[in-house]
């Protein structure tokens, strides 16, 4: 069990527990994928502490500008994908996780880079709190679809034909659509029921003008689920 600060909220304690346990899986010499999000942030803080206090020697590859910014602040050495062929492990969060370890990611609009980085890892470890575990994928979050702006209308039509209800994502503190790190837009697409995530994965990717989407099928190898009491449940793929 990971010891947590009891002045934290229960949910923050759960997130920190999962993040700290994920960071404990890192050892000297590893190339590590550094994910994006509130739970993964705790892992980056702990990795930075281990580098400073335990002389841990690793290099990281971030999945977003936000992850890169935090990693540099934590003193984590970084390399780009041009400098490596593979990763030993990737740590990242998720918006939803089902019993098959299929994920919905992308609330932070970083899912395209996350998918590229995480696909290169020998082990892809997902860190979440219990609120992210669902019986049915799509219960709480839509599937984000990153699109070429000029193709918005035909892509919306194609997503509706797949049973989706797409809506262009707008920022809460900016005018106009959310723009990703790649300069693309996001359509948040709700599906009443995702029965076959693997099939939907392929069908969305085939729509011209779609860069990537937030369904992660067959990628996660382990889920670390932080609990309010500071313990962590491990689900292996």
Structural overview:
It is a single chain. This protein has 237 residues and is of the alpha/beta class. The chain folds into two domains: 10-134 and 218-236, Rossmann fold, CATH 3.40.50; 143-211, ACT domain (Alpha-Beta Plaits). The chain is 29% helix and 25% strand. It contains six helices and 13 strands. It has helices spanning 10-23, 38-54, 65-73, 111-119, 152-161, 197-205; strands spanning 31-34, 59-62, 87-92, 96-97, 103-104, 121-129, 143-147, 164-168, 185-191, 210-213, 215-216, 222-226, 232-236. The protein has a six-stranded mixed β-sheet, with helices on both faces. Helix 1 (10-23) packs across helix 2 (38-54). The longest helix has 17 residues, at 38-54. The protein is globular.
| Strand content range | 25-35%
The value of Rg in angstroms is 18 Å
**Unreliable segments (pLDDT under 50, ≥5 consecutive)?**
1-7
Strand/helix succession: HEHEHEEEHEEHEEHEEEE
CATH topology title of the largest domain: Rossmann fold
Helical coverage, percent range: 25-40%
Structural class, please?
A: alpha/beta
What would the keywords be for this entry?
single chain; 237 residues; alpha/beta; Rossmann fold; Alpha-Beta Plaits; six-stranded mixed sheet; 29% helix; 25% strand; disordered N terminus
């Amino acid at each position: 069990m990971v010891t947590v600060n009891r002045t934290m909220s229960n949910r923050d304690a759960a997130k920190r527990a999962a993040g700290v346990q994920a960071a404990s899986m890192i050892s000297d010499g590893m190339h590590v994928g550094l994910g994006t999000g509130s739970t993964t942030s705790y892992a980056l803080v702990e990795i930075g502490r281990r580098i400073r206090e335990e002389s841990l020697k690793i290099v990281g590859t971030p999945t977003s500008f936000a992850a890169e910014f935090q990693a540099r602040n934590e003193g984590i050495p970084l390399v780009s994908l041009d400098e490596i062929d593979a990763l030993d492990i990737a740590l990242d969060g998720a918006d939803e996780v089902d019993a098959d370890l299929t994920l919905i990611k992308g609330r932070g609009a970083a899912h395209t880079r996350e998918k590229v980085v995480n696909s290169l890892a020998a082990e892809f470890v997902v860190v979440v709190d219990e609120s992210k575990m669902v019986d049915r994928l799509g219960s709480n979050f839509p599937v984000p679809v990153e699109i070429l702006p000029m193709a918005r209308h035909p892509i919306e039509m194609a997503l509706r034909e797949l049973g989706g209800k797409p809506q262009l994502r707008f920022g809460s503190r900016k005018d106009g659509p959310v723009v990703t790190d790649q300069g693309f837009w996001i359509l948040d697409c709700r599906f009443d029921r995702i029965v076959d995530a693997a099939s939907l994965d392929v069908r969305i990717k085939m729509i011209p003008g779609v860069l990537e989407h937030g369904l992660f099928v067959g990628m996660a190898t382990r889920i670390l689920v932080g609990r309010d009491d500071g313990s962590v449940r491990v689900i292996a793929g």
